[in-house]
Amino acid sequence: MIRRFAKYTVLAVAALAILASSASAMTAKTNRDDIKIGLTYHGSTVSVSGLADPNVDLIMKISGEDATEKLMRKDKAAGMWMNVEEITLDHVPEVYYLRSTKDPETILSAEQRNQYVIGYPALREKIDLKPAKPPEQRAKLLDDFIKYKEDGKLYGESLGDVDIKPEDSGESYYTVFDWPYQAPPGEYQVEVYAVKDGQVIDTAESQVTVEQDGAVKALSDMARNNGAVYGLAAIGVSVTAGFGVGIVFKSGGGSH
Question: Strand order of the sheet with strand 80-93?
């Protein structure tokens, strides 16, 4: 009898734990999981929404695949500005957007920010810069690089702009990101973090795929396989659809 009671008690506790876990699980979804780059493409929007526990802060991050960037550092030589050194940056996300209900530096420990690559300071720590530089010069180069990415609409940080409403099972959240036409084709991770007492207590993920479509894809394939024919075709496209030519030529040349 005692064994049977203990068995049922264990099963009941396990069931309650499962129910509690499922009730508190955070969700994340996007309004689209696929963005097509066609001749009339000028960027898009991506909304992120879901459910979260009440009384938590939220951080949303969209990041692209890591890539390698090669840039030229300029300096004065003989009284003129000249390219003096090639800088290589590894582990650089092609796109990096961050949005949060509060400043991540005030709600999340530095250790956690670095672990989840939340915020520009954590992103700087992640990037491998070669050749190695003294700390002050490294910080200046990475600040300039991030500003360059922001100017290209590929990086951005913002506070607020998150619509939060109470729900029976917690809270719902909703926000919209402007998606730039400059973002290259690829897989993009959407990650949402619930933060409480300086720690990430829950996460949810989704994904967005950006891919070329129609004439843009055909021209991109042509550029890789037959450069001469691609040049003639691109000129034809420029006459009939000049507004789309920027995308076509970028597709042929790559993102770096």
Answer: 66-77, 80-93, 128-130
Tell whether 238 and 162 lie within a shared domain: no
Per-residue confidence (pLDDT) for residue 223, from 0 to 100: 61
Domains held by the chain: number? 2
Output the CA torsion sign for 180, 181, 184, 185: positive
Q: Residue-wise over 162-185: b if at least 16 C-beta within 10 A, else e?
A: beeeeeeebbebebebebeebbbb
Q: What pLDDT digit, counting tens, does each position of 152-172 carry?
A: 999 999 998 899 999 988 999
Does residue 157 share a domain with residue 174?
Answer: yes
**Nearest Cα residue to 93 out of 31, 27, 181, 186:** 186
* 57 or 22, greater pLDDT: 57
Structure tokens at 14: 């396990």
Q: Yes or no: say if 37 and 213 are a contact pair by the CB < 8 Å rule.
A: yes
Are residues 246 and 119 located together in one domain of the fold?
no
Helices (H), the chain: 2-24, 104-107, 110-116, 120-126, 135-151, 214-225, 227-240, 245-253
Rounded Cα–Cα distance for residues 45 and 35 (Å): 9
pLDDT band at 135 (very low <50, low <70, confident <90, very high): very high
pLDDT of 240 > 90? The answer is: no
